[in-house]
Amino acid sequence: xxxxxxxxxxxxxxxxxxxxxxxxxxxxxxxxxxxxxxxxxxxxxxxxxxxxxxxxxxxxxxxxxxxxxxxxxxxxxxxxxxxxxxxxxxxxxxxxxxxxxxxxxxxxxxxxxxxxxxxxxxxxxxxxxxxxxxxxxxxxxxxxxxxxxxxxxxxxxxxxxxxxxxxxxxxxxxxxxxxxxxxxxxxxxxxxxxxxxxxxxxxxxxxxxxxxxxxxxxxxxxxxxxxxxxxxxxxxxxxx
Length: 240
Hints:
Elements: E1 5-9, H1 14-25, E2 29-36, H2 43-55, E3 59-64, H3 87-90, H4 102-117, E4 121-123, H5 139-152, H6 154-157, E5 164-166, H7 174-183, H8 208-219
Helix pairs in contact: 1-2, 1-7, 7-8
């Protein structure tokens, strides 16, 4: 029998790369869906391509969806990206980097491709511990979308089974995610997490995503292999 197919939402960051690794280890035939949505940090799309090649996905689809027409986020509009925020600040409230309805849009597109592929599984790397307060990363949101997905496809209506939403990293710290990724052979030097990278792709070292990433590597006792224009104090290196 051929392995079951799964659609992986692959952004190019360390979480989605690790989620892809988990899916492969679980025996899924993996199909990566990457979105170009007008994001400020579009270098992540290049990272997603690198990760897809390294992890040997069966197919990768890139969809263009320009959410700049809606705006409302520091990632899709002319709004400053928050920098140098503390853990307490990051853990309080919803930041300006939240993209309205992003995971609902992305999961809906993944659901559509899964239906075409005959896949019954969708995997994404959302996390509810070391994350930036996004409402569409919470377990209750994922559960609600899963209930909707179980009703929304032809296969579900015709009794062939619904689609399952897998979030294997949702209860892990960033350090645990990094360790798990390394166990699965993920090359984190290929990934990109920064919300506001330099023109050459170097991470800023100061946004929430860089803060959480560097904190995770520090707590794992490791050095982040990607390039930074300026490293956060978690690395103890503040040289430009």
